[in-house]
């Protein structure tokens, strides 16, 4: 989903070292911003609320334009703080309404953020890391290795860029209704930054999204699922992809550390504690995990989950036909196999929608709503083209 590029941008260099001692306000949720106003600026808490509205509701980043703040406070903010947005290297609109941004995070790293409109909702797929260390075998992100965690500012910056572009006005003109932490990276491996960013997404002074409309997707970091239950209140999605340990360990190596019984127990605890369903993502790969025995075992597992949670439809399954990318050994099953798999789940009483591919024409289709399936070489060529078009040298 991302590249590993050297932009050498001379315009809006995202890598420019933060002005000495200045705090990027994108890094702060309500509680930390209130503290910053009280302890660093010697101001009342409500001033922090005013600034949050300027930033997240009106997309104003220049303190001079925050007209309901006094001159003295604006000067103090100028001295101690900044609002540093990610650099938009380029953005593309698909004919189906999907929109993709390539955002520069530092001179060597860029990530993609994708907006997917659908009936009555607009979902933003947000990244939590540059690259990923978990090495899931069917994921293009995994082939790029792990570079680094994104900061809270870099995570919320993705939401800000998309929301501003969409003309989103929280509580009024809502075009951004859902956020899924399903972009590049394992969100639970960057716990603090992700949780703080999700708090801004759900805050009325931030993007005002309902708890259940912010979804965190994990490959199964069991202890962190429990920590998430204790510290946040969002929807949980789990990248399952196999109903048997041996196969899942092959596809998702993390399964060796946290096998299915431990993972499912953690999901039961989460669902019980939150009194909410858990979504299980299942990427269908031809001849690998798309056979009737897989469907039957998956259905059994989901029914057991419902029983353990003691809630009807506690388990939701999303079927995602694999989107091939260059170099992968996996293939997408044909339509008949996909429908047969779905039918077996339906017959077992499970609702299991097949996720439609969106944004194909702009390479924004998701393999598993994780790891955009763009060939790295092709992507880098595209970066270079875009950068050259902007008159920016590419030192990659
Ligand atoms: S599927 Fe998710 S957790 Fe697995 S390698 Fe890709 S980004 Fe990482």
TrEMBL record:
Originating organism: Lysobacter daejeonensis GH1-9
Query: Where do the catalytic residues lie?
Result: 112 (proton acceptor), 366 (s-methylcysteine intermediate)
Database matches in PROSITE patterns: RADICAL_SAM
User: What protein name applies here?
Assistant: Dual-specificity RNA methyltransferase RlmN
Q: Specify where it is mainly localized.
A: cytoplasm
Q: Mind listing the UniProt keywords for this protein, alphabetically?
A: 4Fe-4S, Cytoplasm, Disulfide bond, Iron, Iron-sulfur, Metal-binding, Methyltransferase, rRNA processing, S-adenosyl-L-methionine, Transferase, tRNA processing
Kindly give the Gene3D superfamilies that the UniProt entry links to this protein.
1.10.150.530, Aldolase class I
Q: Where do the annotations place [4Fe-4S] cluster binding?
A: 132, 136, 139
What domain of life is recorded for the organism? Bacteria
């Amino acid at each position: 989903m991302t590249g590993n590029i050297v932009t050498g941008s001379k315009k809006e260099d995202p890598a420019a070292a933060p002005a000495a001692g200045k705090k990027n306000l994108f890094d702060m949720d309500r509680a930390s911003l209130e503290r910053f106003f009280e302890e660093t600026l010697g101001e009342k808490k409500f001033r922090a609320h005013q600034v949050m509205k300027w930033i997240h509701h009106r997309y104003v980043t220049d303190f001079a334009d925050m007209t309901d703040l006094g001159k003295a406070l604006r000067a103090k903010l100028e001295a101690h703080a900044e609002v540093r947005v990610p650099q938009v290297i380029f953005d593309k609109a698909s004919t189906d309404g999907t929109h993709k941004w390539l955002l520069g995070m530092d001179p060597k790293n860029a990530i993609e953020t994708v907006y997917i409109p659908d009936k009555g909702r607009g979902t933003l797929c947000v990244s939590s890391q540059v690259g990923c260390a978990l090495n899931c075998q069917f994921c293009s992100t995994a082939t790029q290795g792990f570079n680094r965690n994104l900061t809270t500012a870099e995570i919320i910056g993705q939401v800000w860029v998309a929301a501003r572009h969409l003309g989103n006005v929280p509580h009024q003109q809502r075009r951004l209704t859902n956020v899924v932490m399903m972009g590049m990276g394992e969100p639970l491996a960057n716990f603090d930054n992700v949780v703080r960013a999700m708090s801004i997404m759900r805050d009325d002074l931030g993007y005002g999204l309902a708890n259940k409309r912010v979804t965190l997707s994990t490959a199964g970091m069991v202890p962190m699922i429990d920590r998430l239950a204790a510290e946040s209140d969002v929807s949980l999605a789990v990248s399952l992809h196999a109903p048997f340990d041996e196969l899942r360990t092959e596809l998702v190596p993390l399964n060796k550390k946290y096998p299915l019984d431990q993972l499912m127990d953690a999901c039961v605890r989460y669902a019980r504690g939150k009194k909410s369903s858990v979504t299980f993502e299942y990427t269908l790969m031809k001849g690998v995990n798309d056979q009737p025995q897989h469907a039957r075992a998956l259905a059994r597992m989901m029914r057991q989950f419902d029983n353990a949670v003691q809630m009807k439809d506690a388990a939701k399954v999303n079927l995602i036909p694999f989107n091939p990318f260059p170099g992968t050994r996996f293939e997408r099953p044909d339509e008949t196999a996909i429908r047969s798999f779905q039918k077996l789940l339906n017959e077992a009483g499970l609702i299991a929608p097949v996720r439609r591919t969106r944004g194909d024409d702009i390479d924004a289709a998701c393999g598993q709503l994780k790891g955009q399936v763009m060939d790295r070489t092709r992507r880098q060529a595209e970066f270079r083209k875009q950068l050259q078009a902007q008159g920016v040298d590419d030192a990659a």
